[in-house]
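User: Last request for today: this protein with zinc ion, please.
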Amino acid sequence: MTAGGRGLQGRREAFLALPPETAQAVIQERLEEIRAAGGLEEALDCLHRWELETGYITREKLEDVERLAFPDKQTGLTFRIQVNHARTRYSDAQERERRDSPPQAEPARGPEPAARQLCLLCKDNIGRPGKESLRVFELEVGGRRFFFQLTPFPLYPYHFVPVLREHAPPALNARSLADMFSLLELAPGYTVLSNSDVQWAGASILSHLHFQMLRGLRLPVLEARPVPEAGRRIPGGRVEFLDYPMTAFRFTGAEAEPLRAAAGALLEKWKSLDPGRNTVNLNLVRGPGPEPGFQLVVLLRNPDYRTPEALRRFKSEGVGVVEASGEAILPVPRGPEAPGMWRVIREQGLGLVKDLIAGNSPPMPGGLAGVTELLEHAAAAG
Ligand SMILES: [Zn+2]
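Assistant: Here's the final one, the structure of the complex with zinc ion:
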């Protein structure tokens, strides 16, 4: 079987017919051909379909999710909750593994070498037990190599994780923004998300730099209304402070460069107010409608601000960028309290999701004056 001389459709069909044991090198080569013929989004579409065929991701995992939507008169937004059954089973399995492993198997303090061996994102996970059919697509992004892999427990279909090829920790800075714009340029139909670089402040895996990309996802915060008078012009666009339960700023504009510079300045300024603790979550998409443009939301985070005690029975894990952006991901309620918890989720879900977001939001020092200072700083750099 040869791919020579075939069009995109032929290459796609040949790719989808590859057996589950196909070597990573062959997957890479075929996806490069598909990308050359049809772009990155075609290659990602093929990888997603192929991983469904191999069972690395399953329809059951994609569909075993209860999705609820809650219109909110106060903000004009529709907040969301998803109760994710498949992820709950995954967390259970991880918990069992932790419980059953002898204490000496725990990494000692100063966990770098042990953590390195256990890294869930490093490329050498390909083919490991439980990940026999994990395959990835590697490419250059803004001068560095990243590989795209599917998360085995997706929040939505087409939930990819672009991972830096080298094992290096994330650091949110101007470089992260540059990476995100480069990723979006390669796959404009996707949302590019970044968790943070500080534990308990919207971080996920802190040892290895990665982003998240989901096809066609628009999270509620993107539609938030600006607070009147709390906006500034930047070349080709605006930066606005948002009427939202978390302290958040939205940059919109036709050109990537000034937007990136302004957002980078705001990010650095916020981080400098409490170094090593202040951080952000980021949410980048192409603007809606026919105008080519960008929307970037910067959500402020700090580990002192976490899920309120009263809500921890619904959500004990940290709150990441998807939740900060308006969609809570909850495990399935269990035990004797479960019926009551389900009632709260269904009948008071709006208050639940807004309180979850608000509890994780650091207040702006100086209130609106502090906000104005950040806006001025960003606008001056844009
Ligand atoms: Zn790693």
